[in-house]
Amino acid sequence: MKSSFRLRYELIALLMCLLLFSGCVGARMGVSWPAIGLIDLNGEQHLTLAYNNDVVILSPSNGAPARLINPVNGQVFRDSENNPRTWILRGSENGGGQFYAYPLRLDDETVLLASNDKRLLEVDSVLLDVKRTIPLDDNVVANLLEADGILYLPFQNGGLSAISMDGLRELWRFPTEAGIWAQPLLVDDLLIFSSIDHFLYAVDSQSGQLQWTVDLGGSVASTPLFANGRLYVGSFNKSFFEISLDGGILSEYKTQNWVWGTPAIDEYGIIYLADLSGFVHALDSENGLLELWSKEIAERGIRAGPIVYGDRVIVASRDGKVYWLDRRDGELINAREIDERPELLGDMMLIEPSEALNIDEPLLLVTSVHDARLLIAFAVDGRQVWVYPR
After folding, report:
1. Using one digit for the tens of pLDDT, what is the confidence trace for 88-133?
2. Which of 6, 282, 329, 383 is deepest in the core (most CB within 10 A)?
3. Is-contact 101 118, C-beta < 8 A?
């Protein structure tokens, strides 16, 4: 295990990094980035976005907040001034909560939401009322994971709790020396999660019994990618690793800077990752992470993991731009500058056309830390489709 002095030093450095990312030194708000996910509402799939003191559910087709529908008569709920009510939960109206993880559905009428003031909220998804508040021992800044009736809850300052979705009872808890800042990953019966304490952990998902750990030499703040029976993850010691499912390091690749985001992989086994010096790397996963190309793309760091679509690799940078690269050689094909160039820090999402989502073309979703353009939807060719302003 790392010495407490060294961990404390690294945590201070990481928190300073977060503050610099946010451009909000000295303020409590803004020391994070938006989290996006999908959630069912009114029988359809919607986007959900959590950032600072707001959680909103949006229509994928136009980015508008979803309306609250009365399930009895199918009519829209309206406020005292006869305006349609929309699905926006404000922390300022609910004990001053802040939200860095998107909500998960508990049942047909309830969603679960972790507030970064040591609370788990049961929220009525129809009326938007908080039905119950469950105290937690620590804050949460990573997305939760629900699988097989168990909710896995990572804590900001260390440890992970497994909670039964039936009754929300704690089943077991696993300690770590420092915080868990990324969503856990479930591979069969192995729950795998990274920690700021330098370790990647694997525990039995039902009992919480430790199966193995591996020291990656630096803090780890991303969810590993599982592909071809192996795990792929980067760390803050400027390294990227290929790891077996029994915890052995198979290959290591040195990067220009910290690797924060989860990598992407294509159908040929080529892995794409980005680092905080603005470099994008393409590695052959079948040949010991052999470098195929490595190019400095962005003017500033790239925190989020890349997305692969067709013959393109897409990355979003702190410089306020989204870049489309040729995945064969890393050559720049297109770049889109977001108005006022806000930092693009949150993980991107690509959603395919479907009737459930009510969209007829693929959409690339990019988040920023600018309230006027918190979520931007692009077509995969770079055309802007809509913007959600908070």
Report:
1. 999 888 888 899 999 999 998 999 999 999 999 999 999 999 999 9
2. 282
3. no
CA angle 324, 38, 183 (to 5 degrees): 80
Whether residue 287 is contained in a domain is answered as yes
Whole-number Å distance between alpha carbons of 251 and 372 = 43
Q: Is residue 337 part of a domain?
A: yes
How many domains does the structure of the chain reveal?
2
Q: Which amino acid is at 307?
A: I
What Cα–Cα distance (Å) separates residue 66 from each residue in 58, 95, 159, 301? 5, 23, 35, 34
Q: Give every CB contact of residue 131 below 8 A, 6+ residues apart in sequence.
A: 110, 122, 123, 124
Give the bridge partners for 110, in sequence order: 107, 124
Has residue 98 been placed in a domain?
no
357 within some domain: yes
| Cα-based distances in Å from 71 to 76, 136, 315, 324, 356 | 9, 32, 41, 43, 19
pTM for this prediction = 0.92
The CATH number for 377's domain is 2.40.128.630
pLDDT in tens, 339-388: 999 999 999 999 999 988 999 999 999 999 999 999 999 999 999 999 99
Cα-based angle 270, 275, 279 (whole degrees, multiple of 5): 75
Q: Which domain does 3 fall in, by range?
A: 1-30
For residue 20, give the H/E element and its range.
helix 4-22
With beta carbons less than 8 A apart as the criterion, state whether 262 and 274 touch.
no
Read off the amino acid at residue 319. Answer: D
DSSP symbols for 298-332:
-SS---SPPEEETTEEEEE-TTSEEEEEETTT--E
CA 189 and chain centroid, separation: 22
Q: Compute the chain's Rg from CA coordinates.
A: 20
